[in-house]
Design brief:
The complex is a heterodimer of chains A (135) and B (81).
Chain A lengths: L1 E7 L1 H9 L8 E7 L7 E2 L1 H6 L6 E6 L8 E12 L8 E10 L10 E3 L1 H4 L3 E5 L4 E5 L1
Parallel strand pairs in A: 2-7, 3-6
Antiparallel strand pairs in A: 1-2, 1-5, 3-7, 4-5, 5-6, 8-9
Chain B lengths: L3 H14 L6 E5 L2 E6 L2 H12 L5 E4 L6 E3 L9 E2 L2
Classes of the chains: A mainly beta (135), B alpha+beta (81).
Chain lengths: 135, 81
């Protein structure tokens, strides 16, 4: 589990400014790194806080779809994963994410999928129960 | 479903869009605006042209890529037609 910061995309930020509308604050969220997810996912509670509307539609298969792909809304967001002091964070100014209820009872609101991990080095030390994420 | 009209436009225009397979198409209502090399460029142009009105950005694919998520999730879905 890591901390991630989710906000409106840079392009939406600019559109909101031009429309003289307030830009929602970046939301701090607990995120689960999930190599079993081909795309990153965000809980609707986060998307609602950011006032987002969908800008995409993709097909997704999960254990809950019963083997039948489903059309799912996609949103453009900015995503930042902080790093140790003195190091640059992982920053995506515009990245598509999938809207999905992320089992709030498990204590996280985002899944960091392989779309983000494809730009990182993820090391899992099973013996010590630790992982490192380098970017 | 959100963007229903734009998705229908994508499906209708897909045969001619396939010349740009792998790129990203920007669609507003029943109009194909243009094709872009990156997702970021398409989104940027979408907001520049349509501000906060609905628009669709979708990667052009002859066979729709299916994303897999191994976790139990409710994705607010509708069946693929």
């Amino acid at each position: 589990m890591i901390i991630a910061y989710v906000g409106v995309s840079q392009a939406r930020h600019n559109a909101l400014m031009q429309a003289a509308q307030p830009v929602p604050n970046i939301v701090e969220t607990s995120a689960m790194i999930d190599t079993g997810a081909s795309g990153s996912c965000i809980d609707p509670t986060i998307l609602n806080q950011l006032g987002l509307t969908p800008t995409g539609s993709i097909s997704v298969n999960t254990p809950t779809t019963g083997g039948q792909p489903q059309l799912v809304s996609q949103y453009d967001v900015s995503l930042m994963i902080p790093c140790a002091p003195g190091h640059a964070p992982l920053m995506h100014l515009t990245i598509p994410v999938i809207q999905s209820d992320l089992l709030t009872a498990q204590g996280f609101h985002a899944l960091i999928g392989r779309d983000v991990l494809s730009g990182c080095l993820l090391t899992y030390d099973g013996r010590s129960g630790l992982f490192t994420l380098a970017y | 479903m959100a963007l229903e009209k734009e998705v229908a436009t994508y499906n209708a225009k897909l045969p001619e869009l396939l010349a740009n397979e792998g790129k990203y198409v920007l669609i507003h209502a029943d109009a194909v605006v243009d094709v872009y090399g990156t997702y970021e460029d398409a989104i940027k142009e979408g907001y520049a042209r349509f501000r906060l009105s609905p628009f669709l950005v979708k990667q052009i694919q002859s066979v729709e890529q299916i994303h897999f998520i191994s976790r139990f999730l409710d994705c607010h879905t509708s069946p693929v037609k």
